[in-house]
Amino acid sequence: QISGQEISAAGQLRLMTAQHHAAQQQGTTQGTYQSRTVLNNVTNNTATNRAAQVVGRTAVQTAVANKTLPANYNQSAAVRVAAVLAKSAAGQTVGHQQLPHQARFFGHNPNLKLPPDKCLLGCVFLIVEYDRSPDTIKEVPTWKQIILDHGGEIEPSYTLRLTHILCQTQKHPLVQQGLRDGKRCITAYWLSDIITKQQLMPPWYALHFPTPYSEERPCRQMLISLTNFENDERNRVKFMIELTGARVTSYFSADNNILVTRKLEGKKVKKARDINRPVVNVQWLNEILFGHLSCMYQPENVKYQQFNLNNPFRVDYNLVLHLMGAWKIPINVTQESYDRVRNNPVPVKRKRPRPNANFPDQENNDLSTADIIITNINPPPIEYRPCVMLSGFGLGKEEQRMVLQLGGTIAKNYSDATHLVMKESVRTTKFLCCVSTVKHIVNGEWLKDSSTQHMFLGEAIYTIEEVSVDQKVICKVHKILSNPNRHELFKGKIFYVTPGVTHPSVFVVRQIIESAGGTVEKQRRSLRAIQELEPNTYIVVASNNDLHLVADLIRSSYGK
């Protein structure tokens, strides 16, 4: 028996099918229009890029004080483009690219209501570029599975039945072909946000659109900082800055070219005003990601000085008309596809483990001892009780239970640990911190066998002999543990870690240094103060993004 709701859904599908056939009659005309639009944009963008290439840390006149324009910058061209954008901001007509007020964009046909967990039904994806990037190649299989789980389909090569192309840039030949054929070209950020919302929607963040750049990104020699953004918004702005090619700094100094903020308040904003550096909103980043580079030379434009916007990430679709043409036609779903989803049960959603902000991590968090029964018939005295640090066991709840049942304790920090239990013989942060202080570094079998025997066994046969650092370096663990002074490796050494160090983080690097007897200072000493110290006493750990912070040391003879 079919319910009234199902009859309604089937009727909607039949109506959509009729609409789909009618839309196909207009397909040729629509495709021709989109082809012309794309070709016009490609021509215009090429001319604009030639006229406004950014070389070095750029700024103009009032934009970035004491910075010079690139030698090949065509100022008159930039002024003309800026005038067009200013008209756009004021709501005036800008040639043939003005977005009609009645233009609407669609995901699915609005007449059809689909289950949220099947929000990609009717969507056929091709994934390009991501499968060649070392940063994302491992993620692609997961993305494909997510698409399939939510009703979508995957094509291994370009076909006309495609509806979406998941890509990073507009430079890939298949992306350009897809734009000519009216395909929706979007990024993995769009896919992530769609899965979160459980609803097919047109792109609404700049991050959802593929960029018009490949390797030569316009801000590649700029330093940009951000402020007054929190949580997801902060991460979003950080990703946007990185996509422009700029380096993101957690601080703001005279070396920074520009500051992106949500509101005009805070220490960074005051600092930027004091040293005459531009302060802009997110719209400035939007336009760079859309290929409108004139904004780099006019950050004081009123468009980029509005800090009371309800939605600072709002997209001006006038700037990406060639990417939005395909979204004017809703995606229809066939009766067969809908029946397949209706007849298949909704999969049970599994709860994802929530990341824990505590350090070191979950595998060394407290396990409730209320239900723990000590199985060790002869538990060691308190002063000899093993204090165990776990590494590589994930949540490690079972391993924690074994330790507690044997009468041991779980280490709260590295200095408390007497035993490091490693699942694999590879270098980890815990290994680097514990190697200076623990008495024993053993494999997971020591814990399993001890649990089986209901007592802590001797460590000798379970000791890890070597740890792989990389293909060329092997760490001889037993030699290090036999050194009675290993906890003094950095004794008398003073370190400064620049804020751009991220892998591992500054906090972790500090832990490693201090566990070996070193001292970490929060502020870098002056070159003169460093030179007054004994040779090889002061050590700076810096990332490539922070080389400007140690430029004076590099220029001097220090460290040579």
Which helices and strands occur, and which strands form pairs?
Blueprint: H1 4-25, H2 27-51, H3 75-89, E1 124-127, H4 140-149, E2 153-154, E3 164-166, H5 173-180, E4 184-186, H6 188-197, E5 223-227, H7 231-243, E6 247-249, E7 258-261, H8 267-274, E8 279-280, H9 282-289, H10 321-324, H11 335-343, E9 387-391, H12 397-405, E10 409-410, E11 419-422, H13 429-434, E12 440-443, H14 444-453, E13 466-468, E14 474-476, H15 477-481, E15 494-497, H16 506-515, E16 519-521, H17 527-531, E17 538-541, H18 551-555
Parallel strand pairs: 1-2, 1-3, 3-4, 5-6, 5-7, 7-8, 9-10, 9-11, 11-12, 15-16, 15-17
Antiparallel strand pairs: 13-14
Protein name: PAX-interacting protein 1
Domain BRCT: 214-289, 400-464, 485-560
Pfam families: BRCT, BRCT_2, PTCB-BRCT, RTT107_BRCT_5
If you had to describe this structure to a student in words, what would you say it looks like?
The protein is an alpha/beta fold and 560 residues long. Among the domains are: 116-208, BRCT domain (Rossmann fold, 3-Layer(aba) Sandwich), CATH 3.40.50; 223-314, BRCT domain (Rossmann fold), CATH 3.40.50; 382-482, Rossmann fold (3-Layer(aba) Sandwich), CATH 3.40.50; 494-556, 3-Layer(aba) Sandwich (Rossmann fold), CATH 3.40.50.10190. Helix content is 32%, strand content 10%. It contains 18 helices and 17 strands. A 4-stranded parallel sheet has the order 2-1-3-4, with helices on both faces. β9, α12 and β10 form a beta-alpha-beta unit. α7 runs parallel beside α9 (282-289) and α12 crosses α14 (444-453). The longest helix is centred in the first third of the chain and has 25 residues, at 27-51.
